[in-house]
Amino acid sequence: THFGYQQVAENEKAKRVAGVFDSVATRYDVMNDLMSAGLHRLWKAFTIGKSGVKAGDRVLDVAGGTGDLSLAFAKRVGPSGQVWLSDINASMLGVGRDRLTDRGQIVPAVQCDAEALPFPDQYFNVVTVAFGLRNMTHKDRALAEMRRVIKPGGKVMVLEFSKVWEPVAPLYDFYSFQVIPRVGQVVTNDADSYRYLAESIRMHPDQETLKGIMEGVGFDKVEYHNLTLGVVALHIGYRF
Ligand code: SAM
Questions:
Q1: How far is residue 240's CA from residue 235's CA, in Å, rounded to a whole number?
Q2: Domains in the chain, start-ordered, CATH in brackets?
Q3: ipTM tops 0.90
Q4: Per-residue three-class SS string for 107-120
Q5: Quick check: CB of 66 below 6 Å from ligand 1?
Q6: What positions does the entry give for S-adenosyl-L-methionine binding (predicted)?
C-alpha cells in the first residue's frame, strides 16, 4: 500500500541517517571545519549571540552531536543553570559528551529522538537544533516537540542549511556535489555520507517554507536571518 511504502521509506531514511553519523562521528569536527572553511563557527557564534542565554537558564541542545553549542551554553548558564546535550546517535553523543568532559563541563547527555523528547512541558528557556532538523523524518513533529518543552517567553532556534542566493547557486551546487564528496573520500574514506549531506541540503525546505512549518506547529512568532548569502539560515520561533 501507499502507507506501507511510506513506512519503508521512513525507516530507510532513519537507518541511512544513523549509518552516516556512525561513520563520520570521529572525523566530524575536522570535516566541519574543512567543508565550511571554519564558517560553521561563525554561524554558531551568531546563534549563541541571538540566544540571549544567561546565568541560570535551562537550555536543550537537540541533535547536539559533538556538542559545540552545548559547550558554549554550559559556560554561559553557570552552575545555577542546566544544559542538556541530546542526540539520537550514540556515536555522536559519545564524542560530544567526552569533549565536554575534557573541557571541564559535565552536562547530562541523553540519547533520544527529537520527535519524542523525554522532557516535561515548558521546562527550557531555549532549545537549539544546529544542522540536525534536515535529518529528521518528520520535521513538523520534531518542531512541535521542541515548542512543547519551552516555557512561555522561550524560544526555539533552528540553525540549518537553506536556500542560497540564486546567482551563486550553480557555484554552490558544484561545491556541494563535486568538491565535498571528494574531500569526504580523502578525509573519512566515505564519499557516500557526504553525497547524502549534499542531497539532504538540497531537499530541505527553504527559508519561507520552514517559517511556515514552524508557524503551523504553533509558534506565536517566527523570524529568520540569512547567513552567508542564505547558505545557512537561523530561524527563531517564539512562544508568548
Ligand atoms: N549540532 C551539531 C553541530 O552543529 O555540529 C551536530 C550536527 S550533525 C550534522 C546532525 C546530528 O543530528 C547528528 O548527530 C545526528 O545523529 C542527529 N540526528 C539526526 N536525526 C535525529 C533525530 N531524529 N533526533 C535527534 N537527533 C538526530
A1: 16
A2: 2-238 (3.40.50.150)
A3: yes
A4: CCEEECCCCCCCCC
A5: yes
A6: 66, 87, 113-114
